[in-house]
Specification:
2 copies of one chain form a homodimer.
Chain A lengths: L8 H13 L4 E8 L9 E2 L3 H10 L4 H11 L3 H4 L10 E5 L4 E2 L4 E8 H6 L1 H24 L5 E3 L8 H13 L4 E2 L2 H7 L9 H5 L4 H10 L5 E4 L5 H13 L7 E5 L4 H14 L6 E4 L5 H9 L6 E4 L1 H4 L9 E8 L2 E2 L14 E6 L5 E5 L8 E3 L1 E6 L2 E2 L6 H17 L3 H4 L10 E2 L1 H15 L13
C-alpha cells in the first residue's frame, strides 16, 4: 500500500480543500515535544532518516487518487486536486543522535500548505516513536556506566518496524549489539545471541546441550544456565567452557531469579574453574532501573541484555509530540487552547558550545558567538541537502553525535531516578513575537482573526 | 529485507545446530500470556493472520543464506543446512477476536524442531503486540457503553505497522471507524476525520474556516471549536452548521479543556440553535478511564475519539507472552526456573458454551459435552487449513467473534477499574502430566535429564 495513504483522513480532507481554494502559501509546521515523560531528563533525536525517505518518495499517483476517493466515499474526480502531489518543501531538523530538550523543535517543515499538512501523520509517527525509543534506550547505557548493553527486544516490540527502529535507536545511543538479524544487517551492527531454554530442554541433559552448542562454532560461546537448577547449570557450564580452548569468547547467561546474587555465584564458579575471562551476561525483564540496581549492588555483570521494557519504552511508550502550524503565508500563528500555547514562527535552537545552555529563538535571528545552531537545513525544494549516506553510516554518525552530547549532559538530566530536564531559555525576539501574536489573537471585538500583524 | 531475517540471532544459531545434528523431531511450542497487566481482565486474540502469512511465506533462499552468514560472521557454507528451509508444520490457534484468559495458549506450533524454533521471534512479535492492542482497545468500547468509539492513534503509534495493527485491533473489538486511511482501505473499515487546529488558523477567522470546511463536501461536517475561545467557537460552529441543509451529518469536536463541562455547553448551544441531531465528538488524550469518567459524569458525548494512549496500549505496551517448548519428539518437557513453570505437552482449552468456565487441558483428551474447543487447527503441513479470506473479511469475522464473547464475559473481567481475570481450571489429565514431568526432572542422582516418561 502506498505511503501516501498512511495518513489520517483529515489530512487528506484539509489538503484537498486547500488545493481547491488555491491556498498554497508557504506554511511552517514545527514538530516538538512539549513535556517529557516523568523519568526522562532529555530526548535523543531519531527518526529523521525515515521521515526524509517518506518525503522524498511521496507521490499521489492515479491509484492513490482512486484509493483516497474510496476512503472518502467521493468520486475520483473530487480527489483530482491532489493528483500528482509531491513534497516540494524545505525541512530544517536536528540531526539524529543529538540531545534535545522539551519544547525544542526536532524538525520544521516549510512547504505549500497542502503538502505541509498532508505529511503530518507519517512524519509525526516516525520522528516521535523513534525519538521515544532512543530516549529510553540511552538511559540503559548511562546506567551501565561503560559496561556493554545489548538489545534483545524484537520479539515483544509493537510490530516489525518497531523492532527495527528499536534496534536502530539502541545502536545510536551506544548499545554494543542487537539480537535482531535484519536490523544488524541493515544498520551495520554486530548481531548477538546465546541460546534459549528450549535448546537445553531438547537434549537429554545440560552437558550434552552445552557441548552441542559449543560445537556449533559460535563466538562467543555463551551458555544459558538457569533452565533447571542454576547452581548445577553453572557447574556444568564451567566444565564445558573449559573444553573450549580454541580462543573463542566464553560466557554464561542468567535469565531469571535474583540476578545480583546469581551473578556473584556465577563469577565465583567461573573463576574457580580458571575461567576468569568468561563473561556473565544477564537478561530477563531488565531496564535502566534494574541495570542501575545491579550496578549499585556491585553485581559482577559483564553484559546487560535489555529487551521488552526498553524496546517498547514501556514506562512511556509515546511522546507528547505535536506538529504545530507556526506560520502561514508570512503570518506567525498560534492557538490558544487551554494549556497548549505554542510560540509562533519558524525557530532555531542556539546551543552553547560545550553545553550548559540552549536558547529557543526565531529562525532568522543571528546565532550568538560561542553557540551553534541545532537545526540544520536537510531538504530544500523537496530534495535532500545533506548526503543520504547508507543506513549504516547514518547510524554510525548519529552514534558519534550522541556520544559527544552525552559527554556534556548535566548530571541532573542523566540520572536514572528523578531526572530533571533542563529547559531552553527563550530569546528576547521570540518572547516579543509571542506577546505580539497573543495580543492580536486576544484583541476585543469581532471574532479573533488568527493572525498577528504581518512582520 | 526478507522476513526470514526478522528474527533473533539465537533462533538461527539453534536451528542451524539442530539441522546439522539431524534433530528434526516434531517440537511443539505454546504461545501464551502467563499473567495479565494490572488493568486487564481478559485478552482478545489478534495477530494470527499476520503470523500465518509469515509462516506461509517463509523460505530461506540463497540471498538469506548469504545475509545470515554475514550476520553470524560465518561462511555461507556453514549456513547451508538452513538453505531452502520452509515452514512445514501444523498450527493450532485461537481465532482472532476470541476472548482468552491468562495461561491459555493463543497458538501452538508443531513442526520439525529447526522450523519451530526459527519462527519464534516473528510469530511472538506479531501475536503478542496485536493481542496487546486489541485487549486494550476492547476496554474503551466497554467503557463507552454503546456509544461509538473511533481510532485516532496512527500518528503516535510505534511505527507504521503498529498503526495499521492498532486500527485493525480496534475494528475487531468494535470501534466504529478509524482515521487511518491505509487501514480503512486494507481492512474495509469506515474512515473518519474532522479538521485540525491548523485548518482554523490558516483562515482569517473561524467562520471562514468552518464555511470553507463545510463547502468541502465531507459527510459528516464536524467542526473543531477549541482553537481560540471554545464558547465563541461553538457559537460560530452552530451558525455555520445551520447553513448545512443538504442532509449531511453535522457535529462539533472538542479536543482540550474540561471535556465534560464543554460537552454540556456544546449540547446546549447546538440544541438552542435547533441542531438537536448534531453530534458532539470528544478527543484529546482519551483512554478507557477517561471515557468511563465522561460516561459516569453524564457528559452528552456522542462519539469518543481515542488515540495515542489506546493505540500504544500506553499503560501496558507489551504482554508477558512466551513461546515455550512443551513437547519434543513425543516427550512432554518443561523448565523449572524460578516462577516460570509451564505445564508440559500440547494443549487445548475447553470452554463451556455460553461462558462461565474454561478448562486448560491436554490436546488429546476429549472435549466434554457442552464445551467447545477454543484452539482450532489452522495450518497442516505448512498449509492453511482455514480459508484465508480477505483482510476485510478476516476483520469482520473476528469482530463478530468478539461481540459474541463479550456478551458472556463476567462483569468482574469487564470492569474498567480493578478488573479481575477469570483463571482457567486445569484438567485432571493435565495436572497429572505436570506432576509426572516435574517428578522426572527433580529426581535425585545424575543431572536432570529434561524428559518425562514417554506416554
Amino acid at each position: 500500500m502506498s505511503d501516501a495513504l498512511v495518513t489520517d483522513l483529515y489530512e487528506v480532507t484539509m489538503a484537498l480543500t486547500y488545493r481547491r481554494l488555491g491556498m498554497a502559501g508557504p506554511a511552517t509546521f514545527s514538530l516538538f515535544v512539549r513535556d517529557l515523560p516523568p523519568d526522562r531528563g532529555f530526548l535523543v533525536a531519531a527518526g529523521l532518516e525515515s521521515a526524509l525517505d517518506f518525503l522524498t518518495g511521496l507521490h499521489v499517483d492515479d491509484e492513490d487518487v482512486a484509493d483516497l476517493a474510496d476512503a472518502l466515499k467521493r468520486s475520483p474526480a473530487d480527489l483530482e486536486p491532489l493528483h500528482g502531489l509531491r513534497f516540494t518543501g524545505d525541512v530544517w531538523a536536528v540531526s539524529e543522535g543529538r540531545v534535545v530538550l522539551p519544547g525544542e523543535p526536532l524538525l520544521e517543515v516549510t512547504a505549500p500548505l497542502p503538502e505541509a499538512q498532508l505529511v503530518e501523520t507519517y512524519v509525526l509517527n516516525q520522528v516521535s516513536h523513534q525519538t521515544a525509543l532512543a530516549s529510553k534506550a540511552a538511559r540503559s547505557v548511562i546506567a551501565a556506566i561503560g559496561r556493554p548493553v545489548v538489545d534483545f527486544g524484537l520479539r515483544r516490540c509493537q510490530g516489525v518496524q518497531a523492532g527495527m527502529h528499536a534496534a536502530r535507536a539502541a545502536a545510536i545511543v551506544g548499545f554494543a549489539s542487537t539480537s535482531n538479524v535484519a536490523a544488524a544487517l541493515r544498520y551495520g551492527l554486530p548481531a548477538t545471541g546465546t541460546m534459549a531454554h528450549s535448546f537445553v530442554e531438547v537434549f537429554p541433559d545440560e552437558a550434552r546441550a552445552f557441548r552441542a552448542f559449543a560445537a556449533g562454532g559460535t563466538d562467543p560461546v555463551t551458555l544459558l544456565v538457569d533452565t533447571y537448577d542454576t547452581g548445577h547449570g553453572l557447574e556444568v557450564a564451567a566444565e564445558v567452557l573449559r573444553e573450549v580452548t580454541d580462543g573463542r569468547g566464553r560466557g554464561i547467561r542468567l535469565d531469571s531469579g535474583d540476578l545480583a546474587a546469581l551473578a556473584t555465584d556465577a563469577r565465583r564458579t567461573l573463576d574457580a574453574a580458571g575461567l576468569t575471562s568468561a563473561r556473565v551476561v544477564v537478561s530477563g525483564g531488565l531496564d535502566e532501573f534494574a541495570v542501575a540496581d545491579l550496578v549499585a549492588a556491585g553485581a559482577p555483570v559483564d553484559v546487560f541484555a535489555v529487551g521488552t521494557r526498553v524496546a517498547t519504552s514501556a514506562d512511556a511508550p509515546y511522546l507528547d509530540a505535536a506538529y504545530k502550524l507556526v506560520e502561514y503565508d508570512g503570518r506567525p500563528v498560534m492557538k490558544l487552547s487551554t494549556g497548549k500555547v505554542t510560540a509562533p514562527g519558524a525557530k532555531q535552537v542556539h546551543r552553547r558550545e560545550g553545553g550548559g545552555e540552549d536558547v529557543l529563538a526565531t529562525r532568522t535571528e543571528p546565532v550568538p558567538p560561542g553557540y551553534e545552531a541545532l537545526l540544520q537545513p536537510v531538504m530544500r525544494a523537496g530534495r535532500r541537502t545533506n548526503v543520504a549516506g547508507t543506513p549504516a553510516s547514518a547510524v554510525a554518525e548519529a552514534r558519534e553525535r550522541f556520544a559527544r552530547d552525552l559527554a556534556v549532559l548535566p548530571e541532573d538530566a542523566r540520572r536514572t531516578r528523578t531526572p530533571v530536564a533542563p529547559r531552553p531559555r527563550t530569546s528576547a525576539r521570540l518572547a516579543e513575537l509571542t506577546t505580539e501574536v497573543v495580543r492580536a489573537l486576544r484583541q476585543p471585538g469581532p471574532p479573533a482573526d488568527g493572525s498577528a500583524p504581518s512582520s
